[in-house]
Amino acid sequence: MAVMATQWMTLSKSVDDGDPEVWVILQDGEALRFQTPEGGIHRIANDEPLKVLRSLVELDPTINTLRELEDVVIGCVGEVRDVLPLWLRPLDEVVQGGRRNEELEDSIEESLWWISTLAHHLSVNGEVWAVIASNASPYESAPRDLFAVPVAGDDLPLWFKEEWASVDFIEMGSMTSGLDTSVLGLLTDRVVSWVDRLDEQPTCVWIGPLTAAEEHFKAWLEGNWLARQLRETWNIPPGEDDFVAWGFLKLAQQGGGSIDLAGALSDDTGDLGIGLTATSRWTFTSSLPSTTIVEALGTLTDRRLGEPAT
Predict the structure, then answer these.
(1) What is the model's pLDDT at position 36?
(2) Residue 182, SS3?
(3) Mean pLDDT value of segment 52-78
(4) Do 208 and 186 form a contact (C-beta atoms < 8 A)?
(5) Residue 63 pLDDT > 60
(6) CA-to-CA distance for 111 and 113, rounded, in angstroms?
(7) Does the pLDDT of residue 145 top 70, yes or no?
(8) Contact 72, 123 (CB under 8 A)
(9) What mean pLDDT is predicted for residues 243-247?
(10) With contact defined as beta carbons under 8 Å apart, do 96 and 72 qualify?
């Protein structure tokens, strides 16, 4: 008895009231059947969702592009939905001349996580998704990154399905600053996100495929924009612990959750750099197991910067 083919993904694009272009991918036994808008049929091996999606681009380079004025509707299985942020490719024209949802754009500009331009939105399994344009990114060579992401119920970008860790910094002394924040977490079940928002700076986002939580935590700890910016001002003697790493060690030692720390116990430690004063306030949070944090941190002296060895 023949097995009926089932939908794996359907993607349609239309401009105004024009006829839509439709791509259909069906699960057909052990393989996938890919039909292009022109009627071409291709059989594709069923593999990891992102690998399959990338093979579709090799067959039709326009399938994953998001262009100005297009209405895009996607229906797909859950494992495909979860990797779409890594696959959909918004083009620059989307933010240069595309339609804008001003009400949604205003709410995003008020969000803690994003100061940017909402230039386009689309539907994925009935959910509203948005293309967000960053003003700058320290993670890539490109001056601006574009992302297609889910939009939360309150019309804010849903950067985190689950938050794993965060670090906040604010200066309370004579050089009072706004709140600087970096957060690591899951955007979807298959995509990890970092979000950095520094006071009076454009918010930056990095997304990537999910691997081991320990690997992501270590990479984020070393590479997030907040820590990198402040480390450039720090005078850390050789062999001393990095303050951010030390803060997460203290958090792991108390069993996770959240911990508040000053940048220094007193100002008698001298000029160690921005954030390393008695009036600097840091908050470290994590939902990851303490063992994961400790493994990612490696060997530390477990000594606050400026404190003498005991």
Answers:
(1) 94
(2) strand
(3) 92
(4) no
(5) yes
(6) 5
(7) no
(8) yes
(9) 92
(10) no
| Nearest residue to 243 via CA among 275, 279, 199, 266 | 275
**Whether the Cβ atoms of residue 223 and residue 139 lie closer than 8 Å to each other:** yes
Only one residue has tokens 């309370």, namely 172
Where residue 107 falls among pLDDT bands split at 50, 70, 90? very low
Are 83 and 8 a contacting pair, CB within 8 Å? no
The per-residue pLDDT of the chain, averaged, comes to 80
Angle of the 290-297 helix axis to the 213-223 helix axis, nearest 10: 50
Does residue 282 contact residue 226 with C-beta atoms inside 8 Å?
no
Query: What pLDDT was estimated at residue 106?
Result: 47
Q: Residue 76 and residue 175: Cα distance in Å, rounded? A: 51
Alpha helical stretches, state H, 166-242? 213-223, 225-231
185: nearest Cα among 204, 213, 151, 157 = 213
pLDDT of residue 83: 95
Structure tokens at 235: 């005078």
Of the CA atoms within 13 Å of residue 9, those in its CB half-sphere come to 25
* pLDDT per residue as tens digits for the range 283-300: 999 999 999 999 999 988
For 251-267, give one letter per residue: b (16+ CB within 10 A) or e. bbeeebeebebebbeee
- In terms of phi and psi (left: phi > 0; alpha: psi -120 to 50; beta: otherwise), the region of 201 is beta
Question: To 10 degrees, the CA torsion angle through 148, 153, 157, 163?
Answer: -110
Dihedral sign computed on CA atoms, order 96, 101, 103, 108 = negative
Instruction: Give the neighbor-by-neighbor strand order of the sheet with 146-150.
Output: 41-45, 31-35, 21-28, 6-15, 70-76, 117-124, 127-133, 146-150
Mapped onto helix, strand or coil, the DSSP state of residue 208 is strand
